[in-house]
Every structure is written in C-alpha cells, then in structure tokens.
C-alpha cells in the first residue's frame, strides 16, 4: 500500500514538472518571437498600372527577396503566408530595349505597403527588369455558330443578337493581323417557339501566347414570334404608257400574300403595297403580256409575294 502511495505521488510530480516545463518553454518561445530579427524573406510581385500600349511578358519576375527587420511573430507569419507587393510599372523607364524599375523606386513602393513595424533593409537586386512589350489593338466581330430550328409558323424577328458583338484583341501585330472574326462554340436549338438567350464560350485562337482577349464568352439571343399570312387585293399600275394611249390589264387587280407576325398583319392595308407593270419592257415587240413587279411593300414583314402568276395580259387602247 505504501508503494502504491509513493508511486502515485511520483506520477503527480512528473505531471506537475511537465506542466511547468511546458509553460517555461512557451514563455521562452513567446519572449523570443517578440524580439526583433534581421533575415531574408520572399515577396510575391503583382504588376499594376500597365499602359494600354504594353502587355506583361511571361519572363517577368514573380518573386523578389528582401532583407527585413521584423519581430519573430512577423517572420513566422511570412513563413506560412507570402506577402504580396504591388509594383507600379508606370514608373519604369525604357533603357537599352528593356523596361527598368530603379531600385530606389522599388524600395519606395515596398516601404509604402509594408507594415510600419517592418523595416526594409536591403533587396536582392539594384533594379527590377519588367518584361513588357508593345502591342497593337484590334476590334474583331463575333459570329454566332448557331443552328436554329423554329417550330412551324414561327419566325425570328430582327435577326440574331450577339452581346458583345465584337471582341478586342491586344498583342503583337504579327499575331493579331490574321484574326478577322471570332466564332462562338456550336449551339444547337430545336423546336424553338419563344424568345431565347444563351451564354456560349468563344472559340479563341490557339497558340497566341502574347495576345489577350477582352472576353471569353458572349450571349446569343433572339426574339421569336408566331406568324401568319394575309392576302391583299392590289390594283395593277402600268408605267411608261405611250402618249395618247391607255392600257387595260386583265386582271386589273392581283392577289398579294404577306407573311408577318399576327400583330403586324393587323396594321397593314392594301395601300402599303404597289404592283407595277412596265410597258417599256416590250421594247416595241408587240407582245400582249406584261411582267409584274412588287415595288412597294410594308416594313417589318417576313415575306411578300404574288399569289398567282407574275404576268398579266393587256389591251392597248387609243384615247
């Protein structure tokens, strides 16, 4: 029993000792992290304020190493989360075919972004070379690759709309000069009887490593309406009748078929059409038949046609 009691006391002492040891270690660790140190660390570079005439090349530096003075806590944080630094490339100068950001300017930009408790001691370079190149800009129309199948007695009003209807491509002139249009990915729509709107990807050219496009998608839309047909009895008008004569056509009225939306057909009358026969087409041949032509039709209709033959017989009478 005495041995069990002694063993229990020893285990308790070990636990108490371990707890004090852990507390002492944490106190020492926190005390050391609170002190200032000088060491090197990496910063990730984000390039900002590129002029419209320049693009960032693929050889630009992504990381810069700097010697800083900071607390142990801050160095611990940097080991897990690399800090990002914005680099204003509008402050670069063009020297010997390269865009250079002077070391003093780079230090100034970094100092403005670092925490006041962090001191920037030194950089791993005297200047930063930014890989940029001059670009051309070009507007290219977008063409819809759409196969649209409408239901019977339905039509497309106003054509296909593409938003945006063009794309801006920027890059070296030798890359973008050959781009004349951009098509959408294939879109198949069957049995359509209502308005539609679909977002589709753009088929951007491959292999243009130094070019960028203002958009990667577009919206293809259209208005669909039900149509019908209506017939109109329109008088035949004869042109270029010889002086002193009159022409009587048989028939003197013809049937015109107009195809449009139901609402539009309600607004149309026979006065919106004109059908003419030109006597001058005979050219003195002495024939008795004239060809008809629809010379006036209403706007915003799908189709206008003569229902029957496109000729009329006539009789020339002297006045």
TrEMBL record:
Q: What is the residue range of the signal peptide feature? A: none
Highest taxon above the source species? Bacteria
Under InterPro entries, the record lists: c-di-AMP_regulator, YbbR
Which Pfam families does the protein's record reference? YbbR (PF07949)
Q: Which PANTHER family match?
A: CDAA REGULATORY PROTEIN CDAR
Name the chain's protein.
Answer: YbbR-like domain-containing protein
The species this protein belongs to is: Flagellimonas hadalis
């Amino acid at each position: 029993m005495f041995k069990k009691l002694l063993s229990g006391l020893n285990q308790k002492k070990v636990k108490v000792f371990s707890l004090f040891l852990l507390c002492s270690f944490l106190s020492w660790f926190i005390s050391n992290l609170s002190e200032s140190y000088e060491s090197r660390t990496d910063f990730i570079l984000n390039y900002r304020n590129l002029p419209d005439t320049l693009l960032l090349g693929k050889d630009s530096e992504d990381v810069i190493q700097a010697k800083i003075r900071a607390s142990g806590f801050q160095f611990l944080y940097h080991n897990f989360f690399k800090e990002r630094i914005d680099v204003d490339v509008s402050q670069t100068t063009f020297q010997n075919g390269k865009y250079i950001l002077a070391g003093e300017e780079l230090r100034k930009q970094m100092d403005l972004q670092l925490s006041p408790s962090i001191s920037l001691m030194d950089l791993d370079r005297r200047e930063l070379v930014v890989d940029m190149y001059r670009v051309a800009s070009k507007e290219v129309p977008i063409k819809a690759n759409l196969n649209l199948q409408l239901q019977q007695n339905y039509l497309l009003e106003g054509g296909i709309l593409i938003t945006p209807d063009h794309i801006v491509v920027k890059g070296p002139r030798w890359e973008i000069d050959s781009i004349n249009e951009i098509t959408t990915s294939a879109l198949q729509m069957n049995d359509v009887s209502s308005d539609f709107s679909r977002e589709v990807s753009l088929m951007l050219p491959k292999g243009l490593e130094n070019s960028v496009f203002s958009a990667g998608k577009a919206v293809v839309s259209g208005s669909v309406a039900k149509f019908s047909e209506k017939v109109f009895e329109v008088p035949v008008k004869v042109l270029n009748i010889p002086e002193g004569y009159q022409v009587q056509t048989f028939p003197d009225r013809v049937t015109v078929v107009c195809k449009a939306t139901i609402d539009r057909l309600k607004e149309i009358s026979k006065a919106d059409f004109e059908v003419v026969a030109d006597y001058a087409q005979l050219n003195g041949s002495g024939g008795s038949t004239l060809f008809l032509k629809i010379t006036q039709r209403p706007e915003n209709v799908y189709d206008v046609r003569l229902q029957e033959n496109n000729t009329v017989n006539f009789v020339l009478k002297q006045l």
